[in-house]
TrEMBL record:
This is Guanidinium exporter. Keywords: Cell membrane, Membrane, Transmembrane, Transmembrane helix, Transport. It holds the Pfam family Multi_Drug_Res. The gene is sugE. NCBIfam families: PRK11431.1 (NF008512). It comes from Rhizobium lemnae. The keyword Transport applies.
Length: 104
């Protein structure tokens, strides 16, 4: 169950990272509320995962999921550059996440 909590926390981290873009500097009420709720839920689920997982592993996986998701959605939704180097770096992060999962 802790890995499920951690995965969901990571997905919610992607949600709040993308949500920040839509808040327009926290000037738009609905996106701001949804972003803050996503932040709270993400950290809450991370806390639940930390009951059973090592801190370094859980934090690295949480931020890794958030990073991969935010970069990928940035490319898809906002036209961020999708260069070979960026995609290769995403692959390296995914390898790191998998490695941490396999060794924990």
């Amino acid at each position: 169950m802790p890995w499920t909590y951690l995965f969901l926390a990571g997905v919610l981290e992607v949600g709040w990272a993308i949500g920040l873009k839509y808040t327009d500097g926290f000037t738009r009420p609905l996106p701001t509320i949804l972003t803050v709720l996503s932040m709270v839920a993400s950290v809450g689920l991370l806390g639940l995962a930390l009951r059973d997982l090592p801190l370094g592993t859980a934090y690295a996986v949480w931020t890794g999921i958030g990073t991969v998701g935010a970069v990928t959605l940035g490319m898809v939704l906002f036209g961020d550059p999708a260069t070979v180097a960026r995609i290769a770096c995403i692959g390296l992060i995914l390898i790191g996440i998998a490695g941490l999962k396999l060794t924990s």
